[in-house]
Structures are given as structure tokens and as C-alpha cells.
TrEMBL record:
PROSITE patterns: HTH_DTXR (PS50944). It comes from the Bacteria. Keywords: DNA-binding, Transcription, Transcription regulation. Belongs to the DtxR/MntR family. This is DtxR family iron (Metal) dependent repressor.
């Protein structure tokens, strides 16, 4: 399954919710993203079938594959925020712009940004508490 922007947003949101309080209920995803529960249930079903999520007792948890994919998206977001902030972009605008850019930036650009900011390539998911809020 090729991950598109929507799937990446779901995985990243689940990663952040999971880090806040463990396994996630679909209603929490719907509330965070502002989507309907049926839309979330459909997307979750596709992600589960593709091996990114597992569920138990109505709660979702990222699989290692899902955590790696979500961590990569989150890492790109943080890196792009850092770049934009270094140009003087305000925190709120940088966060919103990074949310859009994180889905289209090439691996070459990510490598160059890491080098510019003195960051080594990551191995495994990036998990940081706080500092990233999908909706402002």
C-alpha cells in the first residue's frame, strides 16, 4: 500500500495519541482530525489490512511497520518546522505549513535538511512528546 497524505496523517495522529495515553479509540482519532467516525473507521480498516495497525478490544495500536511510517512523517514535520522557524516563520505558521509540506518533500530534500541542521539520519520511529499539534 502506497501511503498518501491522508494515510500519513492518520498514522501520525495515531502515533501522537498513542504516545499521550496508549492504545487509541477511533473516536479519539475522529475528534483530533475533525473527521466523521465512519470515515475514520474506513481509513482504519484499510490501514489495518495493510499491516500498519492492530486492534484489540476496540482500541488501536501501531504495528512496528506503522510506527516506522508514522515516525518518518513526524520526523519530516519536525525537520520542516525547524527549517521554517530558522527563516523567522512564526511557530503557528511553521506548524501549519510543515503539515502540508511533510507529505510532498523528497528524500533528497530531507537528507539535505538533515545535513544542514547537523542531524544524522534516524533509525526507527521518532517519538517526542509535545511540540506537535495537528490542528493548531
Amino acid at each position: 500500500m502506497e501511503l498518501g497524505e491522508s494515510a500519513e496523517n492518520y498514522l501520525e495522529t495515531i502515533l501522537l495519541l498513542q504516545r499521550e495515553h496508549g492504545p487509541v479509540r477511533p473516536v479519539e482519532i475522529a475528534n483530533r482530525l475533525g473527521f466523521s467516525r465512519p470515515s475514520v473507521c474506513h481509513a482504519v480498516g484499510l490501514l489495518r489490512q495493510a499491516g500498519y495497525l492492530e486492534s484489540q478490544d476496540g482500541r488501536l495500536r501501531l504495528t512496528p511497520k506503522g510506527e516506522a511510517a508514522a515516525g518518518e512523517v513526524f520526523e519530516r514535520h519536525l525537520l520542516l518546522c525547524r527549517m521554517l522557524r530558522s527563516f523567522g516563520v512564526g511557530e503557528e505558521a511553521a506548524g501549519k505549513d510543515a503539515c502540508k509540506m511533510e507529505h510532498i518533500v523528497s528524500e533528497e530534500t530531507v537528507r539535505c535538511l538533515r545535513a544542514a541542521f547537523g542531524e544524522a539520519p534516524r533509525r526507527g520511529p521518532i517519538v517526542r512528546q509535545g511540540g506537535h499539534n495537528r490542528r493548531g
